[in-house]
Amino acid sequence: MGKVIVFGSDKGGVGKTTTLINIAVMATQKGLSTIILKSDKNNDLFHWAEIRADNGLQQIPVYEAYGDISKEIQKLQKLCDLLFVDCAGHDCSEFRSALTVSNVALTLVKPSSMFEKTTLTTVTKTIRTAQIKHNPELQPYVLMTRVKPHKTQAATALDDELRGNEVWIQPLRTRISELDVFENAVNEGAGVHEVEKASSLSAAKAQLELIANEIDLFDLPI
């Protein structure tokens, strides 16, 4: 039975799909069988998979499902080590149903935007409700993304605020910096762990690997 990681947010433009792809590719590079479930109605993941196939890269199956996707998740997790679920950048039935059967939930936020930070109130309520009513074993985290390497004050302030009250979904220590290599790799149908040479490549790989360690990504169910 594979581990399920759901990606969601209450606002678009935070790098959700790009981050999911890069983490999924990292997992395949470590020899794990990986599936992506698309529940966002844009076709970005399908386009990425097509480019990936054209470039002769190892295929990562991309499925799609909408509405209550809990049964589809339970079906697909039997076929892989890791199942990554990409939900839309807003509150939706797909995200709510995914939370009831997932192992890990990552909600992404760009800390420099006050509008995006305020969405954490809604997301926290949604996740806590899922934990209380359906899935007490769910492990949720806030992942800060697109953090400018030399402008971390906003990220530090948000981190302090969240850690100051345990009712909030707690933040990961690792943050995703605003590095071009993340998006450039995805535009080529790849992930940064398949890129041989690029600016800030080592930093990008290290951030993804630290995130994997923090969420026990490779500690698979027996």
Structural key phrases:
single chain; about 220 residues; alpha/beta; six-stranded parallel beta sheet; 9 helices; 6 strands; globular
Describe this structure in words.
By secondary structure, the protein is α/β, with parallel strands linked by helices. The chain has nine helices and six strands; from the N terminus they run βαβαβαβαβααβααα. The chain has helices at residues 16-29, 44-54, 70-76, 93-99, 114-118, 120-133, 153-163, 180-187, 201-214, and strands at residues 3-8, 34-38, 62-64, 82-86, 104-109, 139-144. A six-stranded parallel β-sheet has the order 3-2-4-1-5-6, with helices on both faces. Strand 2 (34-38), helix 2 and strand 3 form a beta-alpha-beta unit. Helix 1 packs across helix 8 (180-187). It starts with a strand and ends in an 8-residue tail after the last helix. The mean pLDDT is 93.
Structural class estimated from helices and strands: alpha/beta
Gap between N and C termini: 8 Å
Helix tally equals 9
Runs with pLDDT <50, length 5+? none
Largest sheet entry: 6 strands, parallel
**Average pLDDT rating:** 93
User: What is the H/E string?
Assistant: EHEHEHEHEHHEHHH
Task: List strands and helices in order, with pairings.
Blueprint: E1 3-8, H1 16-29, E2 34-38, H2 44-54, E3 62-64, H3 70-76, E4 82-86, H4 93-99, E5 104-109, H5 114-118, H6 120-133, E6 139-144, H7 153-163, H8 180-187, H9 201-214
Parallel strand pairs: 1-4, 1-5, 2-3, 2-4, 5-6
